[in-house]
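wait is this the right file?? whatever heres the structure
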């Protein structure tokens, strides 16, 4: 499901709607002046985000068989936010890497479990000093695909005179 959602999300962000979302994010007034219906697109972005959140929650509930409100306390919210910030806000590959690191970290730090939150805090402070945008904060899925495509084109141009 993650691969399908990431693929569909990258397609959506490369579409006309995705470009309009980027323009709204960068400068809403300029986007409105260029004829972008910002209200409709903001509601659409909220709807898509809500759908993906609901899908994730449904899959989580299916995996856990039983959920309760206490499972989503404040510390769980901080943990999920740390995953996004560590990988890079706005970067799908960065978020995947951040989630992977912070999912494996408790298992690797099991011997010092009481210092896990200290590790999270120190990691975020170091990250904010050296990489304020996150590990892959400036890398987007479609950028990776474009670079890969350019390398293939360049390789084909080098081999075919």
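ok assuming it is, sequence goes like this
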């Amino acid at each position: 499901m993650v691969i399908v959602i990431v693929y569909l999300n990258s397609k959506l962000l490369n579409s006309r709607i995705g470009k309009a979302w980027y323009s709204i994010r960068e400068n809403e007034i300029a986007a409105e002046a260029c004829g972008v219906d910002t209200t409709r697109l903001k509601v659409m972005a909220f709807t898509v985000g809500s759908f993906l959140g609901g899908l994730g929650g449904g899959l989580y509930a299916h995996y856990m068989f039983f959920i309760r409100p206490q499972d989503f306390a404040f510390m769980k919210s901080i943990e999920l936010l740390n995953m996004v910030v560590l990988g890079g806000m706005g970067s799908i590959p960065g978020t995947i890497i951040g989630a992977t690191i912070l999912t494996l970290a408790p298992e690797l730090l099991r011997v010092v479990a009481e210092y896990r939150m200290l590790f999270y805090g120190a990691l975020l402070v170091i990250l904010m000093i050296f990489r304020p945008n996150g590990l892959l904060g400036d890398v987007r899925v479609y950028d990776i695909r474009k670079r890969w495509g350019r390398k293939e084109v360049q390789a084909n141009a080098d081999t075919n005179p």
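Residues 1-68 form one domain. so i think its the right one actually
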